[in-house]
Amino acid sequence: MENYKTLQVFQKFPSSGVFHINLNRPSQRNALSRDFFPEFSIAFQSLDQNPNASVIVLSGTGDHFCSGIDIKTLNSFANDTGDRGRSGERLRRDIKYLQEAITAIERCRKPVIAAIKGACIGGGIDIVTACDIRYCSKDAFFSVKEVDMGLTADLGTLQRLPGIVGFGNAMELALTGRRFSGQEAKELGLVSRVFGSKEELDEGVKIIAEGIAAKSPLAVTGTKAVLLRSRDSSVEQGLDYVATWNSSMLVSDDLMEAVSAHLQKRKPTFSKL
């Protein structure tokens, strides 16, 4: 396992297939430093290729999920001097690089579950909107904060949030930058469930993650891939994509095992991917 400055990557129960990635700067409320972005990409690429990893749970060490991008990181962009055109071109490359780190969540074939407690602000929203499933504790609060920092959010919130909560809701949240609760996040559809405490969140997500990890890895990774492709396509294009996908993946040992287990009234056992 890699050594990271800004993350913890671990597996609590070796036989479960569930791996954890924790944002790990609790003294800074898990603000996103410059070091975070390359490490985040590496962590997801590594687990994507790890046959023992079936599901990834993403959370934050300490009392908060993420307080957004570190001010020092913002200052490093603002202090670029010299020719305006060349500075702008460098900044665009920097932004694209940071975007790719967040998009690593979607590029990872394994499902990613966000377990959110405390603050989820700015860059934290960028991260959770790229996740496949989101849950939070009752104490969680959210804010699309960039507008209050004199910025246009540029790491994915404005592209992904409308598809999750609706265009009008996303516009209102992004323009006001207002704080909203875990319960409102549930009502908007940003999270699937609100747990009563951090402990209940951890236990609930554990059960859900282990349940997904026990399913056919071909079916799970295929479902994620097809849903993400269909999100950005017409219905006809999405149907064509899943037909092509299943033409190569449908007839598998996993299908045979699932059918046999159902007939024999036992739990199926699937090979690693």
From TrEMBL:
One of its GO terms (cellular component) is peroxisome. The keyword Ribonucleoprotein does not apply. Its main location: other. It holds the Pfam family ECH_1. Keywords: Acetylation, Fatty acid metabolism, Isomerase, Lipid metabolism, Peroxisome. Pathway: Lipid metabolism; fatty acid beta-oxidation. GO terms for molecular function: delta(3,5)-delta(2,4)-dienoyl-CoA isomerase activity. It is found in: Peroxisome. GO terms for biological process: fatty acid metabolic process. Gene3D superfamilies: 2-enoyl-CoA Hydratase, Chain A, domain 1, Lyase 2-enoyl-coa Hydratase, Chain A, domain 2. Belongs to the enoyl-CoA hydratase/isomerase family. This is ENOYL-COA HYDRATASE. It comes from Salix viminalis.
